[in-house]
Amino acid sequence: MERVTVLFCFLVVLSTAQKTGFGPCPDALPLSSLDVKRYLGKWHEIYKIPNFFEADQSCITANYSLKADGHIKVFNQGVTNGQPVSKTGDAYVPNPSEPAKLMVKFSENSPYAPYWVLDTDYTNYTVVFSCESFGKIAHAQFAWILSRNITITESLNQKLFQTLENNGVPASYLKKADQSNCTSSKK
To answer: What is the rounded distance in angstroms from the CA atom of residue 138 to the CA atom of residue 132?
Structure first.
């Protein structure tokens, strides 16, 4: 029965996530240190592996702020069919010795999912990776390149694509996020 459940979950994810595969998640290496306080604030989505939970959205931003309990409030905003949409989540660092391996969730009933920071300079860009394994059978990958502004240079794009490639995440799956006709370009 467990194999049927895992297979069913994989088929659901396969139909909604753009980068799925057989076997375990790639051996991505998040940063060895992360200054969460410097990471807080507003980030604009520049590239992503398309996913079901942001389908048809444009002008996507993520705003991170520290909560009283030490967790991080994640406030994602976007526009769908001309209407603003938002979702608030909770993130935390489960192991202080691995501060760039955060866990995040966006509903009370959902489990936490990985949110790994592979690279950031805190002021211009961040590269985020997430992968969910379904036993040893399959996995679903998600990745984002975010910036404090709505655009980044082509040379920086190439550097960040290479960061993903070096971590086993095919940059060819990334799609440029729609940041046209957005009202804000700065944090």
So the answer is: 9
**Contact between residue 29 and residue 118 where contact means Cβ atoms under 8 Å apart:** yes
For tokens 């996995």, the residue is 139
Question: Beta strand 113-120 with 101-105: parallel, antiparallel or unpaired?
Answer: antiparallel
Polymer length in residues for the chain: 187
DSSP state letter for 69: T
Amino acid at 14: L
Say how far apart CA 54 and CA 177 lie, in whole Å: 10
pLDDT digits over 68-122, tens only?
Answer: 999 999 999 999 888 999 999 999 999 999 999 999 999 888 899 999 999 999 9
**C-alpha dist (Å) from residue 161 to 29, 63, 113:** 15, 23, 22
Token pair for 57: 């959205």
CA distance 76 to 48: 14
Residue with token string 């051996």 = 27
Which positions ≥6 away from 170 have C-beta within 8 Å?
A: 19, 164
Distances (CA, A) of 64 to 34, 89, 96: 14, 10, 18
Domains and CATH numbers, the chain: 2-176 (2.40.128.20)
